Every structure is written in C-alpha cells, then in structure tokens.
Predict the structure of Polysaccharide chain length determinant N-terminal domain-containing protein.
Amino acid sequence: MKEIFNRMLERTKKLLVFLVILPVLTGSIAFFFELQRPTTYTAEAKLELGNFQNDRLTNPELLKEIMTSDTYLGNVINEHNLEAGVEEIQSNLLYEVDNNKIITLSYKGQNQETAEKVLDGVISTFLEESNDVFEAKEKLYEEDLKEVAKIETEYEKVAKAELLTKLKNENIDIQETYILNPIDTTSSYQNPAKRAVFGVIIGLMVSSLFVVLPEVMRK
C-alpha cells in the first residue's frame, strides 16, 4: 500500500504542472463558452378558450391552424408593427393544447422585449376578434329576450315559455375567452462563473485519473 502511495506521489510531482493547468484550462473553456452562448428568452401565456358556439375561435385544434397560418400572422405583424417576419414567428411560436379548453402560447427570441411584443400581438389580435364575436352573441341573446318578452296573448304564452327555455339552454354555458396566466418571460442565461466551477471540477477529476489510473491498470 505504501509503495502505491509513493508511486502516486512521485507521479503527482512529475505531472504537477500539467495537473494544475488542466483544471484551470477546463474551467476557462467552460467560462468562455458560456459567456459566448446567446441568451434565449421565452415569453409564455396561458388562455382558457370561451364557449359561444364558434368553432373557429373556441376549438383548440382548429384555432392552432389559424393562429399559426401565414394570413393570421401577417395580420398580426401589420396591426402591431412587428419587425419579425411570418416565417420567423412560425419557427419560434409554440402552441400547446393543455386540455380541451386551455392553451399555452410561447415565443422564443434573443431579445426579451421583442419576444414579449410578438406574443402580445398574437394574443391581442385573437382576443380582439374573439371578444367582438362574443359580444355580438350576447347582444343577439339580449335582443331575442326582448322580443320574446313582448309576447302577451294567452295563445302565445306557451310559445313564449318554450322560447325562453330554449334561449336559456343555448346560453347557459356561454363564456368568453380570457387570459389565465398573463405573459411571463424566462431566460436561458446561466452564470459563467458557475459553469467555470463545473469545468474546474471536471478538470480535477481528469487530473486525478492521470494519477490513479496507472495503479489500477498495474493491478
């Protein structure tokens, strides 16, 4: 055992410069690689789709096709004066269906403000149309109720009751689309110093192998 220790000590003395330089080198490489890596920002928001008898605006699968289409994104770019092109948005926009009525929209970019602006534009354009359709639906419902309320004759009372029941059943679950989670942005940034420490640890592990491995191979 003493002989093994002495050989390892002798080997360490011979390779001392190399064993010291290696962790410093791996730590430096890790630091500069992390420093040069571009930071990616991901803006994300969650929406709950409404229920107002309009598949185009409330069916998550159909809506995915619409919101990622050239036409829709072209309108978003024009309405919100975005610098990004349609293809760029399509390649960085992620549309996920969490369940039948909840969707998650996210957009990745190397500029936080741009990522948030693009995602806000995509959502705002959709909500504007969705709210207009929902309000029109509500207005029509109220107008129908007023028309039914005008029925006064005994003969028409049965029809009035049936119409009221029908209108209430059709609109009992009516709900507009709304934002569950507003836009929140996360960053891929990693502290270069932490990456450097990791690199040093790797270097130390490799250095120790140069000292220990020959003894293992000898056995």
